[in-house]
Amino acid sequence: MGRKGMLLVGHGSKLPYNKELIETTAGIIAKKTDEYLVKPGFMSLNTPTVEDQLEAFRKEDIEMLVVVPLFLAKGVHINKDIPELLGLPEGGRHGTFQLNGKTVPLVYASPIGSDPLLAELMLKNASDAIAELKS
Amino acid sequence: MGRKGMLLVGHGSKLPYNKELIETTAGIIAKKTDEYLVKPGFMSLNTPTVEDQLEAFRKEDIEMLVVVPLFLAKGVHINKDIPELLGLPEGGRHGTFQLNGKTVPLVYASPIGSDPLLAELMLKNASDAIAELKS
User: Fold this and answer.
1) Cβ distance B10 to B67 under 8 Å?
2) GO molecular function, one example (chains A, B) (predicted)?
3) Which 8-state DSSP code applies to residue A74?
């Protein structure tokens, strides 16, 4: 089995923080697992764009492309703008992706959403801030 | 020791998804721990507002107020707008909060930021989407 591609999609921002977040998270994922070849791409304002990275993935030997939006929740970008860039219908979750000479499945994952891991992260941020106060 | 208050701050949105995310996450945190009395509040577009919930916390018996922004990353809201609502200087992380008849510490936590838990959540969302394709 070959590797899967993971396109980690960020919103993009004029400020540096969104880009940093997406790129650092892509780096953490890449270090954590060999299952995915991870590339970060931005919907607007930053580069590489989603389109740039789709083109870059066409040259890779991957068995599937998983598009993971690093967004908090659904909204117009998740429901409409990103599917458009992926050639999916609105609300579409599965399609195909053309590599050089072969077609592989394309899967569009959900944004963060409410998840026990997110609750845990909020508790961690709260504890860290309290620890900083006490130190 | 009494409980701490946690004000979980959301951006707010015309669409229902941000409000749902913040309220559901507040519920998960409340179920998970007795350490905090959790109230969700919104910066704009939804209610209860941050100001509403600050007023509500003044009536509670808490030993500290921790304000945790459920935002992806720093930006104008995190650096400037929320501190203003909390009476903190720009970049400020610690202050005081007036309850009815006593003053307690106020702590302003960081937004999500790059964290191994966020990377784990992205991997989970990717796996879930792939599992859905195969089912």
Assistant:
1) no
2) metal ion binding
3) -
Q: What is the largest CA-CA distance in chain A?
A: 59
Beta strands in chain A (DSSP E): 3-10, 36-42, 62-69, 94-98, 103-108
Average pLDDT for B54-79: 96
Interface test with A, best of B72, B82, B86 (most A CBs within 10 A): B72
Give the DSSP letter of residue B89. Answer: P
Query: Across chain A, what does the average pLDDT equal?
Result: 95
C-alpha A24/C-alpha A16 separation (Å) is 12
How far from chain centre, in Å, is Cα B123? 24
The predicted pLDDT at position B17 comes to 94
- CB contact at 8 A, A129 and B93: yes
pLDDT number for residue A1: 61
Across the interface, which of B28, B93, B94 has its CB nearest the CB of A119?
B28
Work out the angle between the directed axes of helices A17-32 and B116-134 (0-180°, nearest 10): 70
- Where are the alpha helices (H) located in chain B, listed in sequence order? 17-32, 50-58, 76, 82-86, 116-134
Domains of chain B by range and CATH?
Answer: 3-134 (3.40.50.1400)
With tokens 């350490």, the residue in question is: B35
- How far B34 CA sits from the closest chain A CA (Å)? 12
Q: Under the phi-then-psi rule, with left for phi > 0, alpha for psi from -120 to 50, and beta for the rest, what region is B132?
A: alpha
Q: Taking a C-beta distance cutoff of 8 angstroms, is the pair A38, A71 a contact?
A: no
Report the Cα–Cα distance between both ends of chain B, in Å, rounded.
50
Q: What is the ipTM of this complex?
A: 0.95
pLDDT tens digits, A21-54: 999 999 999 999 999 999 999 999 999 999 999 9
What is the share, in percent, of chain B residues with pLDDT greater than 90?
93
